[in-house]
Amino acid sequence: MRGYLRNQNSGAGKEIDETDFLGPPGAGKGTQAKILTEKYGIPQLSTGDMLRSAVAAGTEIGKKAKSIMDAGGLVSDEIVNQIVSDRIDEPDCKKGFILDGYPRTVGQAEALQTILSSKHTKLDAVIELVVDQNALVDRMKTRVAETIAAGGKVRSDDNPEAFAKRLVEYSEKTAPLSQFYAKTGLLKKIDGMAPVKEVTSAIEKILH
Ligand code: AP5
Fold first, then answer.
1. What do the Gene Ontology cellular component annotations say (predicted)?
2. pLDDT band at 207 (very low <50, low <70, confident <90, very high)
3. Domains along the chain?
């Protein structure tokens, strides 16, 4: 999880090399990753989206992941490390990428270091969206209502039981990454309770 912007002659004039967002379910990782992807033209590598696609396509990975995801648990490190490593090899990642929802365990963070090192790159910064946990269930409910209003399919893990489990998984397995990355000097914390545009501005200031 890291990122920075640097001066370039293309697109909006700046390019993100690699950025990664850390934060609990509903913190706004996907929202911010999508905004930066549209603005700077580099891909969002969301392990959640990749796994949901695998489930929808009925692949072997999707079959293994479905029941775990539906219950709000974490898919095995082995599976997500492999899909991220493979995804980074795709041509559109050459200019940089935004990691969204990965790594999620200390084991994944260690694997990511090895993966990036083998591809001759490294993390530059990790951005943690700091949020009030009490607001997250309401954000999930809003997303469900908006999805229904738009005629879309509600995520199978956007229900109170699975969401509660996702929050527990976050505190037990993912929150320790804040300390992990603080020790490396890469961690930057942002107020994720601010309005979306303000969060984006704060991220861009850090990445510059
Ligand atoms: P994943 O898809 O990554 O879900 P998540 O981490 O639970 O995160 P969400 O997508 O719920 O939230 P978000 O932070 O992206 O918030 P969003 O921007 O949507 O993972 C799903 C599952 O896949 C996992 O449970 C696990 O099973 C598996 N998985 C994925 N990665 C894995 C890994 N690395 N290892 C193992 N298993 C893995 O925003 C939420 C809502 O809030 C939206 O409605 C949005 O409009 C609103 N909002 C956003 N920002 C703001 C703001 N600033 N103010 C007000 N509202 C806001």
1. cytoplasm
2. confident
3. 4-131+174-207 (3.40.50.300)
**152-194 pLDDT, tens per residue?**
999 999 999 999 999 999 999 999 999 999 999 999 999 999 9
Distances from the Cα of 162 to the Cαs of 27, 30, 112, 167, in angstroms?
Answer: 16, 18, 27, 9
Q: Which residue has the higher pLDDT, 3 or 208?
A: 208
- Tell me how crowded residue 154 is: count the other CB atoms within 10 A of its CB: 13
Q: Per residue in 73-108, pLDDT tens? A: 999 999 999 999 999 999 999 888 899 999 999 999
Q: Give the three-class secondary structure for 191.
A: strand
Query: Read out DSSP for 124-166?
Result: --EEEEE--HHHHHHHHHHHHHHHHHTT-PPPTT-SHHHHHHH
Helices (H), 7-89: 29-40, 47-57, 60-70, 77-88
Q: Give the binding-site residues of ligand 1, using a 6 Å CB cut-off.
A: 23, 25-31, 47-48, 51, 68-69, 72-75, 80, 101-102, 104, 108, 139, 142-143, 157, 166, 192, 195-196, 199
Residue 21 is predicted with a pLDDT of: 93
Q: Name beta bridge partners: 22.
A: 128
Q: Pick from 49, 5, 56: which is nearest to 29 by CA?
A: 49
Residue found under tokens 């942002």: 190
